[in-house]
Design goal:
The complex is a heterodimer of chains A (115) and B (113).
Chain A: E1 4-7, E2 10-13, E3 19-25, E4 32-38, E5 44-51, E6 57-58, E7 67-73, E8 76-81, E9 90-97, E10 104-106, E11 110-114
Parallel strand pairs in A: 2-11
Antiparallel strand pairs in A: 1-3, 3-8, 4-5, 4-9, 5-6, 7-8, 9-10, 9-11
Chain B: E1 3-5, E2 10-14, E3 19-21, E4 24-26, E5 33-39, E6 46-52, E7 60-61, E8 64-69, E9 74-79, E10 88-95, E11 101-103, E12 107-112
Parallel strand pairs in B: 2-12
Antiparallel strand pairs in B: 1-4, 3-9, 5-6, 5-10, 7-8, 8-9, 10-11, 10-12
Classes of the chains: A mainly beta (115), B mainly beta (113).
Chain lengths: 115, 113
């Protein structure tokens, strides 16, 4: 089956620093990837849609300048949390679709803790 | 907007028994996809089963099967012969075309030995 990886699996950083999370589709190409955020004991909330070769599409309420998304290639999308604050601490998950793409495969997630 | 509702925050089943998790959704579309994902304590989202809306036949995957009622916009998951490893959060999800997925709030399933 399709495999999606994320790196790092967890990260601790100081308030005010930036953190980059990578999402890779290992055995298929993905023109579109999705970034989700999940708080403890809650569901996944879509943050943005990452499109290869074009700007990401952000959900309402998600700050574009704070959560920078770059879809540099057909197998890599990155999420950068800029000037992170404790309220940004969460579990971030990416997903990508294997053609015909209606099924999404998820990365293992990244736990971010901002001190 | 499409919404997905899981009305059972928690469910419990005895090992080897059968349990059904409920899911309803709201959409005006006729062509879409429905999914059940499992999220164990590791938090890795694992695809359990999927259903294409244009198919009348209910999807089956080993011990997992769905009851898809398109007119009622209902998509329940039945787990037969429950195993300890089935314990997890289960999310129902809706997707139209290549758009993003919309998830329900989840149902936490406990399996009692």
């Amino acid at each position: 089956g399709a495999v999606v990886s994320q790196h790092p699996s967890w990260v601790i950083c100081k308030s005010g620093t930036s953190v980059k999370i990578e999402c890779r589709s290992l055995d298929f190409q993905a023109t579109t990837m999705f970034w989700y955020r999940q708080f403890p004991k809650q569901s996944l909330m879509l943050m943005a849609t990452s499109n290869e070769g074009s700007k990401a599409t952000y959900e309402q309420g998600v700050e574009k300048d704070k959560f920078l998304i770059n879809h540099a290639s057909l197998t890599l999308s990155t999420l950068t949390v800029t000037s992170a604050h404790p309220e940004d601490s969460s579990f971030y998950i990416c997903s990508a679709g294997q053609p015909p793409q209606e099924t999404q495969y998820f990365g293992p997630g990244t736990r971010l803790l901002v001190l | 907007a499409q919404t997905v509702t899981q009305s059972q925050p928690e469910m419990s089943v005895q090992e080897a028994e059968t349990v059904t998790l409920s899911c309803t959704y709201d959409t005006s579309e006729s062509d879409y996809y429905l999914f059940w994902y499992k999220q164990p304590p590791s938090r890795q989202m694992i695809l359990v089963i999927r259903q294409e809306a244009y198919k009348q036949q209910n999807a089956t995957e080993n011990r997992f099967s769905v009851n898809f009622q398109k007119a009622a916009k209902s998509f329940s998951l039945k787990i037969s012969d429950s195993q300890l490893g089935d314990a997890a959060m289960y999310f129902c999800a809706y997707r139209r075309g290549n758009n993003d997925m919309r998830f329900g709030a989840g149902t936490r399933l406990t399996v009692k030995p």
